[in-house]
Amino acid sequence: MISMDDFWLYLEVFPWLGYCISGFFGLIFGSFLTFLFYRIQNNEPWLWGQGASRSKCPSCKINLGAIDLIPVLSWAISCGKCRHCKKGVPIRYPLIEIGTSIIFLLIYRVCQG
Length: 113
Ligand SMILES: [Zn+2]
What we know:
Bound molecules: zinc ion
Number of domains: 1
Largest sheet: none
Helix content: 55-70%
Strand content: under 5%
């Protein structure tokens, strides 16, 4: 277990580590945004305490597994199609995830000074 002091030291020694962590959290946050936009747009619950369910394919309504929910990679591996029904998944999902990741990287860069 590393302490927070060790963590900050690692970031100074390995500057690329901060970019990797920022980019990773940007992808995760972007994935959450696509989930949130979809639920709000379709008037579906998005809070688990209020009846939100697992993410589903909009076409075949099958529950998506962990392998289907990896930001950008799932879309790229499946060539932009649902693994089950082969219907297209809009490119806006990976683009939002990539865009959010870039924003997180820029924020990290600015905070570095
Ligand atoms: Zn499907």
